[in-house]
Every structure is written in structure tokens, then in C-alpha cells.
Amino acid sequence: MENIREIPSHSTRLAQSHFRTLRLPSPFQPRIEALARTEDWYDWAGYKAPNSLWDSELEYFAIRSQAALFDISPMVKYRIEGPDAEACLNRITLRDVAKLKPGRVHYTAWCDDEGHVLDDGTLFRLGEQNFRLCCQERHLPWLLDSACGFDVRIEEETEAIAGLALQGPTSFAVLREAGFAGVEHLKVFDLADFLHQNGTVTICRTGFTGDLGYELFVETKLALSLWDRLWQAGEHRGLRAIGYQALNRARIEAGLIVANADFSTAGHALRADRVRMPDEIGLGFMVDAEKGHFNGRTAIIKARQNKTMHHVLVGLEIEGNIPAEHAIVYHRKKREVGLVSAAIWSPMAKRNIAIAGLSRPFGDTITDDLWVEIYAMRELKYERLMKRAKIVPRPFIKLDRRAANPPADF
Amino acid sequence: MFLGAYGERLAGASVAEQVAWKELRAQLVRYAGILKPMLSRRPPDLGGMSLAETSALGLTALSLKRLGKEDMRDFLRMLLMNVADVLDEQLEDDRLKGLLAFDAVLSSHLGPRSPTSLLGLYYRLTGELAGAPGAQIVPRGGMGQIAAAIASSAAKAGVIMRSNAIVNKIRIENGRATGIVLENAEEIPCGLIVSAIDPSTTFLDLVGPRELDTGFVRKVKNIRNQGNAAKLHLALDRPPEFLGVRAEDHRGRLVIAPSADHVERAFNPAKYGEFSTEPVMEITLPSLSDPSLAPDGACVLSAIIQYAPYRLKQGWDAGKPKFLKIIMDLLERYAPGIGARVRHAELLTPADIEARYRMPGGHWHHGELQADQMLMSRPVSGWSGYDTPVDGLFLCGAGSHPGGGISGAPGLNAARRILAARS
Ligand SMILES: Cc1cc2nc3c(=O)[nH]c(=O)nc-3n(C[C@H](O)[C@H](O)[C@H](O)COP(=O)(O)OP(=O)(O)OC[C@H]3O[C@@H](n4cnc5c(N)ncnc54)[C@H](O)[C@@H]3O)c2cc1C
């Protein structure tokens, strides 16, 4: 196994060395490797990340009935600081950053000049003039070019900061047991700093599961000790490490989308018709046309006025129990109107659910008589199923414990 | 020596060379004629072209077809060639090639052997005076008279003009330009703003990046606009006498560019941020034709000198006296005794031109006029139609298609565009 490189937290402006190693180890790699029984890895932004660790089905149930630890270190992270940080982020992203108070997090997205979504992500306001932006894709040149005319410093800190998602009904109990006093005060989308050894860990009540959960960010050199602290505290609270497959099920139930899975980002799309405006992937609610200029504003407003948005993203409930992953969606079983981008049989909702991109007016004004065509491989033969699909609101599940205050203890 | 509109006749060369030049000139004028509609009209907007515009482009295609197969092939072959290769193919006389090479690269960061340098010559030939392609004049009373003439006819039309009014800011409200703020903080509300200020200043300083999309700002920041030409003004006791130039020919344009290789060698240092040690130059003595420009018997000399890169490695404070000495030594070789007649000398480097005329980079085209910054890529791709991402703000200066020079073309195009948008 490769060595874990020690990366000084302040010297890494650009994660430039990621190409030197085929798959970079995460700061938590020694702990994760030790738990990896399936040896089922995938590439997450250049990192060696687990798809599953022991049993993706059971890993999923750890999220829903115990607590699950998921390594989010490969997530691309930027630090944006300075007197104009708020103004600069307001110009880059869709939502009004002035409404984001210090100690709060919001989910947002950003677009190119044409109003096509470059990425979505979470914006953490660590202080009045201090932000962290987390996302899937790398954007440093775009962010730096967007900083022109603003008094702001932008640094990539992907390699300097390790991240963990701790999700599930006992997640609060794990943190309390680990000794993070005061964590009970965090409401959904709150964040605060807590002591860890000789440093701090930033804990946010956020997550990608629709469940009670937290995300923790720490300097890489404190990563392993943080893992150990949580692991120990979780011993009697069912804490399990999980891989992406389990998380993916949870996020589909929560109705959350993933860049380059449920939509193509503008930086990746090669074909002119693959790019999407916020309104076309369910992110129209983020667009704050009143807050002043931001990238893509003119294009988005024009497209709204001229009604030139051709797509819409919907939640589907599909009859039966066979997941309709990447199935084609039809109107009246005949006309092709879209594609399912993510689908599972939901153990929580006890429904066969899916996220799909449709071409308007289907999914917009025409919502009845939709069908999906599922090819189920059965002993080297495809069974072709035409199943009725109904548009339903996302999220597919709503868990009271997610937002309960105080969070449940165990 | 060139006579008439851009060398209609050639003197001082062999008979064979005269014939060769006549043929080459005819060919260049023919090809420039094809490009002309493109260079004078609005650049083709491949997306939203009106019928009239499409047919104008169609005309270009048609005139291409009319050329005949051989000629069309040659037109396309030569389009992006370097001027030195074209000249070497067809001419022998180094002096003639030097002159043509100089004209082709005038104002640009190109040497005669740089790809696409032939375009500069086409650009020159698409300009015309009274139907004579490539012809140029100096107006009586100097260039300033043009501005004065424009000012007086505008005043007659009821236009109120304000000079020495420095604009500090263009006000934007909800994506629309609503007014300007002057240096003295005075605000002038505007329904429409048409800016002849270069695109970089207009967008990066006056509008400001905050009101613009990142991709657009990126493009504007990438406009190459570093000038490479210096301007020399000399006030002389008496007219200079250039060796081998007849008295009456001193009224014309005198070019020091002994060969295409010489021009290329002059360019070499510019690539590395140094000025030419053997510069090339174009000299005029305007007071010979227009005595109003100098008191009795005296003479003014005006010269454009290349290459003088804007970003001089040693800095222009240190470099300027050295460069001036090089220029004066060179002039002394061609016009012995000129140095002793100088009463006053002024050398404007691109840095000086930038400061004096508020032209970032000191580039008189407000941005290099090269293939990648022409037509639909001028000033930046997607915005070559004089309109801008800001509603109510238009461009009309040298930074827009077709570029600088005292041609009025970008202004005329912009005015037409604005009027068309209104009706
Ligand atoms: C040394 C030299 C020699 C040249 N020789 C010739 C020649 O012989 N023949 C020829 O045809 N062309 C020549 N040119 C080129 C020609 O002068 C330019 O291309 C032409 O002037 C461009 O016209 P314009 O109106 O677009 O821009 P400019 O002439 O640059 O006009 C822009 C105006 O905007 C003003 N401005 C800028 N910022 C502000 C502000 N913030 N507020 C208010 N005003 C502002 C500037 O002061 C300037 O007056 C020469 C240029 C130079 C530098």
C-alpha cells in the first residue's frame, strides 16, 4: 500500500499532484483499508474510494438504523476568504450569500455565462469573511478568474482538509459520547468548531442521506485521531464504515442529485444538448434574480422569458420492485421522453423509486401515461418490462429525526 | 519607390521586377477585394444573421467563386501565409520586399515570417480613398483636423460634446447601463452609452467585472493589446535631406526597411521584451506639404518606429533614452546632419501612448489585429456585433471590428447596428 503523504495544510494552493499516483489514498486510508473486506474500490476525483466495504446492503441499513461513517475527503474543497468573499461568491453562485449567516451552510450551484450548471455543492460560512465551498468538480481556474475585481483569496484545500460524514439515527449519540460538548445545539445547516487534540474540527449538521447526520472537517494531520475518537465512541451505537453504494441508496431516497450522474456539468458535456440550466435539473429555486448580477443571470432570465428550457428533472414511482436504472421513459408506451438517471427499490419508502430527466412538456404540463422500459437480465436473457411510472415529489422519504431538536440520543 | 495609390507604379527597380510587382499588386488587390465586404461590414454572426447579412456573406462566397478555380485556390492558399514567403515567391528586389514586409506587420506583434502576417497587407489594401485601394493621405493641418471636422459637423447636427471629461464608471442597474460617472463625480444619466474607449477599459474598469459573467471577463482579459510601435516627433530647424531621395519625394512616405529579413531581425528582440537595435520606420515630413505646421523654414518630422514592445524588460524609463539614441543614430546614417537640426525631440513609447491617450498597452488598434482577434472574434467571440452583455451599452472604437486606423468603420457599423436595433 502507498504511504499516506503528509501535506502541510497551508502550502497546497492547487491539488496538482493528484495525477502522480493512480489513485490517491485518503487521509483515512489506513483505517478504511483495514475494514475493506470486499476490496471494491472506485475512483472518486482521483482518490481510491470504497464502493462497498463489507456488504453494501447492510452498510445502507447502518445509515438508516445505526450510524455510518463515510469518508468525504476526496470532495473538492475551496477556501474563499477576504473582505469581498461574500460579494464574490454572490457573483459566482446562484443563491443570495448575504442571507447565509456565519455558522450556516447552504446548498447551492453555479453556472457559466450561458446559464448552464457547472456544478452544485455546499457553501459553508465559517466566518464573516471566510467560506468553504465543497463540490464534485475542480474549479480553481474558474474561481480565480471570477475573483478578478474582488478583494478575496481563493485556495484549493482538497488535500489539506479531511472530511467525514457521520450519518444515521445514532450519529448524535456518537458525537456526544466522543465528547463534543455543545453539538446538541446544532440545528440542520448549522456549523461550529470543536476542539480536537491540539486543533479544531468543524462539525456541520448536514449530509447526503436525508437522515440525522453530521459532516466533520479537520486538518489532514488530525484525520486518523478523529476517526479513532469517533470509532471508539460508536462501539456501542452500531457505528459502521460504509462505501458509496450504500450512500447512493440513501441519497436517492432523499431525492438528492449527483453531478455527472443525474445531469452533465457544463465543463464535461461534449454535446451541445447535454448541458442544463438550473431550472432543468430542479435547482431553479436557487436562482435569486433579485440579488444583483451573478454568472449566467442574463441567460437564465432570458431562457425563462422565452420559455426555452427544454428539460425537467422529476421523481418517479414505478410499479413493481425492479430498479429502473438508466431505463428510457416513454409517453403512452410509444414516444421516448426521457431517461432515468438513478433508481432503486427503496427499503424505507417500500416503493420502487427513480430520478429522471424528461423533455418538456413531458414532466412539466404532460404528466400522465408515463412508462419506463426496464431490461432485467435473467440468466443471460433480458426480460423486457414496460412499467407504469408516476411523477411524485422528492424527497421520496421524510424522516422527522433528520431535523428534530434536540436530536435523539441513544 | 512607390507612386500613386499603394505602388500603382514602381520606380527604381528593374523592368522585370516592375512587371512582377504589377502582377502581385493586382493579385493582392483582387484578394483584398474579396475580404473587403467582410472587413467593412458587420462581422458575420454565424448564429443570428439577418437576410441582408447572409446575402452579404453570400456575396463574398460568390466573388470567391467568380475568381475562377486557380485563383480561388491561390486565395485560400495565401490567406494565412506569412508575407515573407509570398514575397519570396514572386519578387526579387530586397528593397521592395522590405517595404511590403514592413507595411504588412506595421502595428502588430508579428515579423514578416510570422504566420498570417500577409493579412496586414490585405487589411491595408481594403482601405481606400476615392476608390483607390490602399491609398492614404495626411489631411491639411494634420490629423487633428479630422477630429475638428467631425466635431464641427456634429455640432451642426445639434450634438452637445464635452471634452476633457474623464469617465470613471459606467453605472449598471439590473443588467442595464443607466449612466456614467465622471472623474469629478458628476453623474450623467444615459439612455444609451456608446463607448469608443478600448474594450478592456470599458469592461474591466468602467463597467467592472462584478457586473459581467466570468467567461466574458476571461475573454476580455485575454485580448492581446500590447503595442509594439513608438512614435517620434522631431522639430527641425530645416528640412532634412535623405540620401538618394529627390527633393520633391521628401513629401511622401519614407520607409527604412532595407529587406524583409531586416524587418524580421528587427522583430526578433521584441519577442523577448527588448527593442530593436536596428529598428524599421516610416517617416513623414508633413510640414513640407502643409507649411501651416511649422514656422518659416522649419520642419516637423513624424515617424512610426518598430519594434518597441510595451512590456520592455528593462522598463521604458531606462530604455527610452537608449532607444532614442539608436533611432537618431540610424536617422543620421540616412539623413546626415539631421541630428544637428533637432530643436526638439519627443519619443512616445507604447507606455507613453498608453498614458497620454488612455489606451491600455498603447496599442493603436486597441488590441492586436491578427487572425484570432478579427471578424467575429473582435473584440471577443460571441460579442462582435457592437452590442455587449450589458443592455444599453455599445462599443464603437478600434477594439471592435474591423479595427483601428482613421477609417471611421467601427463607428459607422456601430451606428447602423444601434439604429437597426431601434427600428
Ligand atoms: C503612433 C501612432 C500613429 C498612428 N498613425 C496612424 C496613421 O497614420 N493613420 C491612421 O489611420 N491611423 C493611425 N494611427 C491609429 C489611429 O490613431 C487609431 O487607430 C485610432 O485613433 C483609433 O480610434 P478610436 O476612436 O477607436 O480610439 P482612440 O483614438 O484611442 O479614441 C479613444 C478616446 O477615448 C478617450 N478615453 C479613454 N479613456 C477614457 C475615459 N475613461 N474617459 C473619457 N475618455 C476616455 C481617449 O482619450 C481617446 O481620445 C496611429 C496611432 C498611433 C498610436
Automatic annotation (TrEMBL), chain A:
Substrate binds at residue 215. Residues 47-289 form the GCVT N-terminal domain. It comes from the Bacteria. Residues 313-397 form the Aminomethyltransferase C-terminal domain. One of its GO terms (molecular function) is transferase activity. The keyword Transferase applies. Keywords: Transferase. InterPro entries: GcvT/YgfZ/DmdA (IPR028896), GcvT/YgfZ_C (IPR029043), GcvT_C (IPR013977), GCVT_N (IPR006222), TrmE/GcvT-like (IPR027266). The keyword Repressor does not apply. This is Aminomethyl transferase family protein. It comes from Allomesorhizobium camelthorni.
